[in-house]
Amino acid sequence: MVDQYNQYYFKLHPKAKKYQIDKPRHPSINQWCILPRIQMNALKQKWKAFGCWLIDQLGYTDKHLESFDIEYIVYFDTKRRHDVDNQIPKFLLDSFTESGFIVDDDEKHLHSLTLKTGYDKQNPRTEIIITIN
Fold first, then answer.
1. Which end of the chain is more exposed for a tag (fewer CB within 10 A), N or C?
2. What is the pTM (predicted TM-score) of this model?
3. pLDDT (tens digit, 0 to 9) for every residue of the chain, 133 residues total?
4. For the structural domain made of 28-132, what CATH number should be given?
C-alpha cells in the first residue's frame, strides 16, 4: 500500500522528489517528538493524507464506527530492539477520524488499543485489526 500511495502522490506532484511515506510503519514517538514544530506538523500532515487515502482505497470512508477496539502490529525487518510503546499510531488514528472511518479516537469510541511488534525480514509491514463492539 505504501508503494501504491507514493505512486499516487507522485502523479499528483510530478516535481516532488521525496517519498512521502518511506517505511511501512508509523514514525515512532522518539522520531517525531524531537522534531521542530514545523517539521512535526509536516510529518503529521503526510501521515494524515496517507491514512485518508488508505481508508478511501479500502472503501471505508464515512463508516463512522462508534464502538471499537484496535490491535496495531508492526513487523520490523530487523531483530534490533524496538520499544513497543513507541509505536503509537497517533497520526493514523487522526486520519481515521478525518476520513470518517471512525467517529473519534477518544475513550467513548475507542475502548482499547493493543500495540504489538514482530519480526519479518521478508515482509516488514503494519497490520491494523479493528474489532467492532
1. C
2. 0.85
3. 888 999 999 999 999 888 888 888 888 888 888 999 999 999 899 999 999 999 999 999 999 999 999 999 999 999 999 888 888 888 899 999 999 999 999 999 999 999 999 999 999 999 999 999 9
4. 3.30.1330.70
